[in-house]
Amino acid sequence: MGFLDAIERGLERAVNGAFAKTFRSGVEPVEIASALKRELDTSASVVSRDRILVPNRLTVRLAPADFQRLRRLGEPLLDELTSTVQSHARQSGYSFPGPVDLGFEPDEAMSTGMLDIQSDTEAGEVVWTAVVDIKGKRHQLRKGRTVIGRGSDADITVDDAGASRKHAEIVWDGTRAQVSDLGSTNGTTLNGRALGTALLEPDSIIDIGATRIVYRVLAQSKERRA
C-alpha cells in the first residue's frame, strides 16, 4: 500500500467513525462486501506479468453489537462474502496464495456502525465446496450425482410446474462439476444456451422451467472462523 493510499484509508476510517458515533447505524453485509473488495484492490501486489497476488486471510473487525448481530447469520453470510471476494478476484485477475479464510472479530474500541478489514497472506490446504443457490436458498453439493427436479425423489426439489420430475443433474468430483439435462420436457439452459451436457464454470447460471440456479465454488481452509 502506498503512502497516499494509507492517508486515504485513514481519512475514510475517521469519517466512518464520526458517522457511526453520530447515527449509531449498524454495519450491513453490503458494506462489508464493498470493504473486502476495496481491501483486495489496495493490497494487490504484481508478482509477474500475468500474476497479481492478493491476501487470502481476511478479518472483519466490528463493534461488539454489530459482531453479535451479524454472527447470528452464521455460515450463509460467511459463504456469501467469500463467494463475493472470489468473484471479485476472478474479475480483476487476482490470485490467492491459498484458500480464502474469512472471519469476524469483535473490537471493543470500535463504535457501532464502524468496520475495519485486516488482511494477511497465509498458505494452507484448500478445501473446495460446490453449492447451488436456488430462490434464496443455498444447497451444498455432495461428491457424485445430484439430481434437481420437481419430483419428491429428486435430491434437490424445486416447486416449478415447468420442471420435469428429474430435470437435470450435476456431477461434482470435488474439484470440477458437469451438468446434464435428463431428457426433460422443457429443456435446460446454461448461461442462456440450450444444454445437453457441459462442464460447469463458477458463477454459471442454469435455468430449468422458471427456476434459476446459480452454481458456485468456494475455496476455503479446513477451519472456518466465527
Automatic annotation (TrEMBL):
Record-linked Gene3D superfamilies: 2.60.200.20, FhaA, phosphopeptide-binding domain (DUF3662) (3.30.2320.60)
FHA domain span: 146-195
InterPro entries in the record: Cell_Proc_Reg/RNA_Proc, FHA_dom, FhaA_N, FhaA_N_sf, SMAD_FHA_dom_sf
SMART domains assigned to the protein according to its UniProt record, in alphabetical order: FHA
Keywords: Phosphoprotein
Protein name per UniProt: FHA domain-containing protein
Organism: Agrococcus pavilionensis RW1
Lineage of producing organism: Bacteria, Bacillati, Actinomycetota, Actinomycetes, Micrococcales
